[in-house]
Structure formats: C-alpha cells, structure tokens
Fold:
Amino acid sequence: MMSCLGADLPASVQSLDETYRRKCRNICADLTKAHLAELKKLQEKCLNSSDFATAKKVKDYYDSLTNGTYVWGNSAEKNFSYFMASGWGGDWSHTLNMDMVMVSRSPDGSVEKFQVDLKSSDSEVLVFNNGDRLWFYLDENNLMQRSKVFSLPMSRIAPSRKGVNCETELGTIRRRFVDECSRKTKDLTTNYVAYLVKQIPVLLEKGASADELKALNDYIGVLGNRPIARKDTCPYGELLGNWKTEKNDEKWTFTKDGIEVTSLYNPTRPKKKWIHVSSSPARRVHLFKGEGNSKESFYVSLALGKIYLFHPDRRGWMPVLDKMN
Structure:
C-alpha cells in the first residue's frame, strides 16, 4: 500500500492537501485512463498464469484509482524510488517490492524477506524489521547493506525483461505511472511545496506540535523529491557533538572541521582525524577521509538515533556510535 503522511499533517494544511490531490487527479485524468486499461490487461495475464496473489494486488490498486483512495503525490514508489528502480547484487540478489518488502535470494534459491519500517526510513536510508538490517545510499549505482554483524556493498542490477513475472511487471508500470504524473504535475507541485515551506514558521508561532511539524517537513521532502533546506551550513549538522562506540572504548567528536577520535582507555594516545569529502543529495550519507597521507575513508549516516559507519567498497564491520550525554 501507499505511504500516506497526509493524515499526520497539521489540520490547517489537510484541507489544502485535499485540494492539491484533486488537482493532481484532474491533470492526470488521461494518464489514469490509459493506466487503468493497462492494469486490466495485466490482471488478466496474472489470472491466466494462476498468479492469484498478484491479481488481487492489481485489483486493489485499480480500485484505489477508481474510488478516490489512491494517494496522489505521496507514494512509497516516489519516496523510495532510488531503492526500487532495480535489483541489487551482492552474494545474494535483492529487490524491494511495492509492499515495501525487501526480497533477498541466495545463489541456491533460498529466500529471506524484510519489511521496511516506513516511519524510520527516508529516500536515502531504508530501515528493515526495526533495525535488523539497513540500506544506505552511496551513489547512483551503489548502496551499502548493514546488519548488526556485517556490512555488504551492493551494486545496481540492470533490469531484465527475461522471465519477468506479474508482480515485477506491476511494479514497473506503477512506477512509470508515478513518474509520468510527477512530470505533468511538476508546476503545481512546485508551487504547493513553496507554499508549504512558508507555513512552517507560521505553524511554529501558532504552537504546532513537534510531530505535526516533522510530518509536514517529511511531506514536503516527499512532494519535492528533494532534501529540505536546513539552516545549518554544515552538511552533516545532525551529527555534531560527541558520540561513543558501543564498547565504550572510543569517543568520536564531530565538529564543523571534521572528526576527531579519542581513546577512552588511553586519552594521551594521538587522536585520529578525518575530514568531510562529500554528502549525498539529501544529506543523509556522508563520506570522510583521513587527514594528511592517510588514505582511509568511510561513510557515515545517522539512523535510529545511532551513527553507522562503513567502508565504501569492501566488507568489514565498523562500530556503531551512540550519543554521549
């Protein structure tokens, strides 16, 4: 099902949101008509191949488009489009389906499934099963999978039409529909996002709750498909401060000049230092490298209140950091 943040928006915004969605429906009426015809053909194909589970998904999705329950401009396909655009390869192959379930297949054919935690995830960090596994954006063709015990770099697998099943085809045509509608409603969405951004200080003055403001901030990011502008000039501002390893043997200090690591067992030991190199488009994943002649580099990202560290191109466990009081 679609991810819907609209129900969590401040009351003063919800009525405007209904107007926005209605205009989206009107602008995309012709696209929707063609899309519904495509879905009818796909449903028949699924039934003919005895894939009744996907046929039911097609029907539910079709009904959402015809009975007004489809969430325009606020879909999981858009918010997580980077991760859903193809499969990902490591030792196992991995795909993220429309139900926000990651299906992981081993070379011998065994399968594991992990559900996305929508509340804890965003366009560049996916959290599965309450933190049991995470995916982090690295660049256009690479991501990092982390669990509690390992890190695994994965590369994009080019989509193939060979052996495409009904569920894969449904995902493809849904994402195509979302992309086409996004292009047609771009001007409307741009104006609406600009208006919503201006409402944040207004709602602050009126005493809106932190949850309402976060929902609005997240919603603006989904609609605009881009990071929200932040007041801090440091691209990794949310990391600033002191953090410690889970073993409590090191203190990691993030400043606007970079990272300093101090041994808590031997404070006189020389500090390790790294400098910031780059950040991902939504500023959720950051690359640091060692100062001077050091060639060591690693990625850093905040998820679930912890800092995760990982090497860019190889396996190898790195510590998870907790905030120091």
The two ends are 39 Å apart (CA to CA). The longest strand covers residues 272-279.
